[in-house]
Amino acid sequence: MPLETGSTSFNLVLLIARVALGLMILAHGYAKVFRGGKLAGTAGWFDSIGMRPGKINAYMAAGTEIGVGILLTLGLLVPLAAAGLVALMTVAIVTVHRKNGFFVYNAGQGIEYCLMLIVSAITVGSFGGGKYSIDHAHTFVTWFDRPMHAFATVTIVGFGGALLQLAAVYRPGKVKQA
Prior knowledge:
It is a multi-pass membrane protein. By secondary structure, the chain is mainly α. Helix 5 packs across helix 7. The protein is built from seven helices and no strands. It is 69% helix and 0% strand. It has one domain (15-169).
């Protein structure tokens, strides 16, 4: 028997996928702020990979990861949150991972992990928050009720946001020493 998108089983699977994505990206944002080199270390790393100014990009990345994580976990504005995750991972592929090939076990980690997160975000975002979400409890998000509308939003806003960020701040090359 095929799985119906309105069924309890479908909505439970969607809940698990959405919360898993949300908590995963929330943990990444938390780590940027509170672990390792914290925001200062993240800012230095962003400068070193050509995302300048590093401090602004560190705050933007951490804030986006935390915000997207919370929204996905709660099931609030899910297609927009998924678009944020698509943008984050697209920028990560372009700036860090593409030169390392496909596989995540390659030195420097390839694009495999980020690509899987993009596909997962597009999938979850296209179906919306599901029955067990704030989006479902409040009907103010009617544009996203149709999977093709949500899919268009996730992909256009996600990839478009990544392109805008890369155009605005990505300047690879040698860092000038002061």
